[in-house]
Amino acid sequence: MTSILVCDDSPLARETLRRAVATVPGVDRVTTASSGEEVLRRWTADRVDLVLMDVRMPGLGGVESVRRLVSTDPTARVIMLTMAEDLDGVALAVASGARGYLHKDASRAELRATVSQALADPTWRLAPRRLRPAEVGSAPTLTAREIQVLEGMSHGRSNAEIGRDLFLSEDTVKTHARRLFKKLGASDRAHAVALGFRWGLVR
Amino acid sequence: MTSILVCDDSPLARETLRRAVATVPGVDRVTTASSGEEVLRRWTADRVDLVLMDVRMPGLGGVESVRRLVSTDPTARVIMLTMAEDLDGVALAVASGARGYLHKDASRAELRATVSQALADPTWRLAPRRLRPAEVGSAPTLTAREIQVLEGMSHGRSNAEIGRDLFLSEDTVKTHARRLFKKLGASDRAHAVALGFRWGLVR
DNA sequence: ATGTGCGTAACGCTTTCGGGTGATGCTCGT
DNA sequence: ACGAGCATCACCCGAAAGCGTTACGCACAT
Fold first, then answer.
1. Which positions carry 4-aspartylphosphate (chains A, B) (predicted)?
2. CATH class of B144-198
3. What architecture (CATH level 2) is domain B3-135?
4. Nearest chain B alpha carbon to A65
5. pLDDT of residue B106 exceeding 80
6. 3-state secondary structure B83-123
7. Cβ–Cβ contact A63 with B under 8 A
8. What letter would DSSP give residue A126?
9. Does residue B134 sit at the A interface (CB-CB below 8 Å)?
10. DSSP codes, B113-174
11. Which nucleotides of chain D have an atom under 7 angstroms from any protein CB?
């Protein structure tokens, strides 16, 4: 009976991660939490074999959550999930007791491999490895152009205006729009902008 | 007699902060509040030397709370507490009158240092970041219905679908949409969603 | 060399949006 | 009693958006 707890404040990331780790061989149960506080609150009653925890969360935040969790239960195994460039957070997290970290845009295969390894070896600690954005896991990978178009949308620009901004024809902007909608799973530009914010692709 | 007010909607974060600032030399009294409304309500009767306030809270939210507090009492000193991701919120808060900000996962030492400094120097203030004119000023106040419609948009629902969700006619949804566009200064639904995220009205 | 992904562009077609305007009823506070 | 604000609904109409499809050149990897 192997259980994993996915902790992320973003429902989207949570679901994606949940589905991803559920496919790891030997994993019987995947639960989710939306905050470090929730993990701590549930820990005594609902202990799991491995915790995947986001670094950046409202409230306690990943780092402090790991610190507290490990200080109450040194056998707790935690892998931190990080978006990018917050290496300070990762270093702190590892220093606080996390076994290692994974980039959120790691490939599904890498995620599964890491989880398998962490489950197989209780003493395992991850050597940080940088992974190429690949076919899944979490944040959809948009091209530079697609992000530019998405940003234009988030500033209330019409396709024609975005085209003028980027020296493109309106039809080309529409093509980029269509493609980024598909990648994000968005039904329209408003949805796309929302998903862009939730994934941290735009601000 | 130096007093500090900690304002955060999360009880755990509130307690953590309370304990942390209580250890700062010279601090005699630490009170807590769970919402910006509560701070405003209690301000005249229960004035404090420094307020630590969370950016992201239900109801008024940190930004608007600071704005109102400072507009009623310009001597009020507020430090915003924030997560790494909402830099816009920080900038808005500082522009609205907050003296500075702290990351929630800042170290205890950092927290104490910042609080000490703010207490020692009543004029202490972070240099406000340059903001677009549209972003300065008061947070747009949307009605409950308007927020529901905005949320629907952020989930990619069409006006007709939002209407079915909320048991309204499509025309009514359109009216709400038009009004919230005007309030937010949005040019279309994508822009409105983006502004909703930037103001912390939706997530 | 062959495929795959990206960037660019176009055309037709349907759906949806957004603005303008007007209207009714309700609940506040003054 | 009155206006202000909110919620509700309706109609028209032009302007966008969104979708399917096709196509070409280019880079990069298998």
1. 54
2. mainly alpha
3. 3-Layer(aba) Sandwich (3.40)
4. B105
5. no
6. CCCCHHHHHHHHHHCCCEEEECCCCHHHHHHHHHHHHHCCC
7. yes
8. P
9. no
10. HHHHHHHH-TT--PPPPP--GGGSSPPP---HHHHHHHHHHHTT--HHHHHHHHT--HHHHH
11. 6-11, 16-23
**Amino acid in the structure at residue A188:** D
Q: Report protein residues in contact with nucleic acid strand D, where contact means CB under 7 Å.
A: A 158-160, 170, 174-175, 177-178, 181, 187-190; B 141, 143-146, 163, 166, 168-169, 171-172, 174-176, 188
Instruction: Quote the pLDDT of residue B139.
Output: 55
- By C1' distance from the Cα of A157, the closest nucleotide is D16
DSSP label at residue A128: P
Percent of all residues in chain B with a pLDDT value above 70, rounded to a whole number: 73
Average pLDDT over residues B87-92: 55
Beta bridge partners of A5: A31, A51
Q: How is residue B88 written in tokens?
A: 């816009």
Of B104, B154, B158, the CB nearest to A194: B154
Q: What amino acid occupies position A46? A: D
Write out residues 161-190 of B within 8 Å (CB-CB) of A.
186-190
**Domain boundaries along the sequence of chain A:** 3-120, 144-198
Confidence of residue B89 (pLDDT cuts 50, 70, 90): low
- Report yes or no on whether pTM surpasses 0.85: no
Looking at domain A3-120, its CATH class is alpha beta
Provide the token pair at A190.
Answer: 């408003």
